[in-house]
Amino acid sequence: MSLKVTFPKTDTKLAGALIALTFEDAGLSPQAEKLDKTLDGSITGALKRNQSFKGKVGETLELYPAGKNEIDRIIVLGLGKYDELDALKTETAGGTLAAKFSKADIDTLDILTTHSKKLKSEDLAAHLANGFVLRHYNFDRYKSKKKTEDAPKDISALRTVDAHPAKAKSAYEALSHVTQGAFLARDLVNTAPNELYPDSYAKIIEKELKPLGVEIEIFDDKKLLKLGMGGISAVGQGSSRKPRMVIMRYNGAPSSSKSKAKNAPRLGFVGKGVTFDTGGISLKPGPNMDEMKMDMGGSAAVVGLIKTLALRGAKCNAVGIVGLAENMPSSIAYRPGDVITTYAGKTIEVLNTDAEGRLVLADCLSYMQETYSPEFVIDLATLTGAILVALGHEYCGTFVNDDTLWKQMEKASAASGEKLWRMPLDEVWTKEVESEVADLQNTGKSRNAGSCTAAAFLGHFINEGTRWAHMDIAGTAWRKSDQPTVPKFGSGFGVRVLNDLVAKYYEG
Ligand code: BES
Ligand code: MN
Ligand code: ZN
């Protein structure tokens, strides 16, 4: 699993399998052409013999040049059209390369870089390596057996040979901070729910972030009750693993004096951290219930994002708040019919204990606004199955009460490749979640527009004037098939797009 990524100088002696880059329309890169000459046209010869190889993004052709030279294995990697190759397409190419050659008895891959119309060679090198690493991610903590002798060996090093190695290295390191945050989020989602529960999760957050200078505050179940956080407390009460709320403060805004930094605007991120969602007394059906270990994906994205901001020393102040609870059925579990009182004082009639995420979020959102008056608050939650019905695994349903914030998120989405789709907030749904018995009820009056009524419910906990976005990541946090830069299962969705949002619009 451990992969060394280095950026040696162009005149370094190469010993691994060589990656020669080629464009669909512009042909072999200059570096690859030079190599081809030293190999008496082996590469161009192979390309001629393999007419089906077009050089599309991520397409590969393997060849074994014969003769006296020391290079015995070459992989031609397609980059698509010269004018069109951008950062995301380059990462796709890198990810596809990893999928094919991470476990192919190759110890070292040497990439000969090039540039495209849109990318300088050092940036192309960095994105290619980053795409490779994103796909190379492998969560094998629970495998007890070591690999057998005859199993294909894992790759151990990736070397990117560029004319500007120092620039390539620093470009890669910047990307790597985001990747490290996304990997933390993936790890958290992939961790089994008997290992990751509110108390253990809170400790992991502290262990991960405190050394990076992030201030951590943990509220235990008693403190939550004392504060009057009836939402998160109710959801967690049926489990012997008691709920927690974790607050992460990252202070990176530049200022001449410390006290000034404290007053600098803060960015607020809230995450749903239901470490396992059985549905509670409104029990979910058995098939695939194991996947409900991913119901803390929103919180994982917040933790990963804060890690990224800290690693790269982002010039902003950010607060992350995650509500951690396990939703279990038991003799002391909350039930349909219960009326609970939230931190904001609003009462909620519980109609379905499986609509638990919004109860957890309600307390987190109120506490965030009251305590930190953030510049905006963005929550991430695996909130509804209905968002999967609407948008599948491809798009994250995003509800935003501010057009400027949405435009910024849309730009960040395009840059990061994490796809957002704006969904509607409407007064009709705001009314629909009002209860005859209490202030609110935790489900809509029908099953229709389930993601929208859930968002409208959260809207009841957003104060007048707070800019707010709700990201329903139930479809995007977890996948059962591979994507070019995201292997199946926990995806880490949210870290990249929100990091881009912060980097583009909220630092300075
Ligand atoms: N955690 C689920 C939503 C979910 C479903 C996440 C599928 C990932 C994949 C959430 O707590 C839930 O159970 N929502 C209910 C709400 C309903 C009872 C109003 C749902 O979507 O069915
Ligand atoms: Mn649920
Ligand atoms: Zn849930």
Describe this structure in words.
It is a single chain. The chain has helices spanning 30-38, 42-49, 87-101, 121-136, 165-190, 198-209, 221-227, 230-236, 258-263, 297-311, 357-372, 386-391, 403-416, 427-432, 450-459, 495-505; strands spanning 4-6, 17-23, 27-28, 60-63, 74-78, 108-112, 157-161, 215-219, 244-251, 266-277, 317-327, 339-341, 347-349, 376-381, 396-400, 420-423, 440-441, 468-472, 478-479, 489-490. The chain is α/β, with parallel strands linked by helices and 508 residues long. It folds into two domains: 4-163, Leucine Aminopeptidase, subunit E, domain 1; 177-505, Zn peptidases (Aminopeptidase, 3-Layer(aba) Sandwich), CATH 3.40.630. It starts with a strand and ends with a helix. Bound molecules: ligand BES, manganese (II) ion (MN) and zinc ion. Residues 277, 295, 352, 354-357, 382-386, 388, 443, 450, 474 line the site of ligand BES. Zinc ion is lined by residues 274, 277, 295, 356-357.
Quickly describe the structure.
The chain is α/β, with parallel strands linked by helices.
Count of folded domains: 2
State the fourth-level CATH superfamily of the largest domain: Zn peptidases
Task: Name the poorly predicted regions.
Answer: none
**How many E strands?**
20
Strand content: 15-25%
At CATH's second level, what is the architecture of the largest domain?
A: 3-Layer(aba) Sandwich
Q: Whole-number average pLDDT?
A: 96
Distance between the termini: 37 Å
Which ligands occur here?
Answer: ligand BES, manganese (II) ion, zinc ion
**At the third CATH level, what is the topology name of the largest domain?**
Aminopeptidase
Determine and state the CATH class of the largest domain.
Answer: Alpha Beta
For the largest beta-sheet, the strand count, sense and barrel status come to: 8 strands, mixed
Looking at the structure, what is the overall shape? elongated
The Cα radius of gyration reads 25 Å
Derived structural class: alpha/beta
